[in-house]
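Entry under discussion copied across for reference:
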Amino acid sequence: MSLTRRGFLGVTAASLVATPAVAARGPSRTLYLGTYTSPAGGGSGIGIASYDVNGKITATGVLAGVEDPSFLVRRGQFLYAVNEQTTGGVTAVAIDAPDKLRVLNRQPNKGSAPCHLTIAGNYLLSANYGSGDLAVHPIRPDGSLGQQTDLVEHEGATPHAHQVLQVGEYIVAVDLGTDSIYTYTLANGKLTLRYQTTLKAGAGPRHLAFHPSGHFAYVANELDSTITVCRYDDGQFTPLSTLSTIPPGAPQNFPGEVITSANGRSVYLTNRGHNSVAVFTILDQGAAISLTSTPSCGGDWPRHCTLDPTGTLMFVSNQRSNNVTTFAVDRRTGGLTQTSSFSTPIPVCVSV
């Protein structure tokens, strides 16, 4: 990944009010932290931490030597990381114990600057920002990765694939450079394009998140600081409405991550520039949203956010201020209350 990109952009939960301490929660859980390691990064590999019932984070180790693991995805006892470099790669990691990680292998990625991953059956798919394409690697029975089986380029003047995820029988990819959402099928390690949905020119769609019903998706548009609500039906997206992610008069802003609550009440989006987390209330069974608040992210340049499995805690990774903030989540209203902050080098992804 180039310095230019780093520098430029730099349904079943109960309706209860979350409090910072939740008696029903179990023992401490583990977080894995993605970061940048070179040439201007400050991390040394994949960070390992634990958090308690209040969401307070404690460092427990690091898996050193994994280069630029800027996005992580976990399945069972295995963790997979991109190596977000010009000549990129993907790395497979075994979780021998919550705080003991072991590299299984690394496979080169013929695309450039992979920045996002998803697991689809026995395959690991990566979105390559630099070259604007998707790569497919088989996952072996022991969790390691096989050689790349496919590379599919998005057509356009400046394609920048930024997200890939499995949605039922489909693979969905979001491309910031072509202002498009692509829908593929995957068979025998090969991708076949089925549909392409084009959004507003220059919006820069970065990531999307689905309503728990699966009938609607919310697209974070990085370049014009908006979020678009889309209807989703059998692989096809239909834009319904678009609204700002920041209040009037706010500074220049670039949305980062977008997620939805499991109870279908709220959408959350990180605002880089405004340095906030936009909280949207979901209306009309998912067909509409309304911006209700934009609390401070507790740092600078909130790149990523995630909810813990209980839905009562949110973790926000603040890239430029070198900290991860914890928020208590009110599951009834969607409101956020910051409870703690954890210092760590260049956090750009938090995997629970």
In short: Residues 270 and 277 are 5 Å apart (CA to CA). Confidence is low (pLDDT under 50) at residues 1-25.
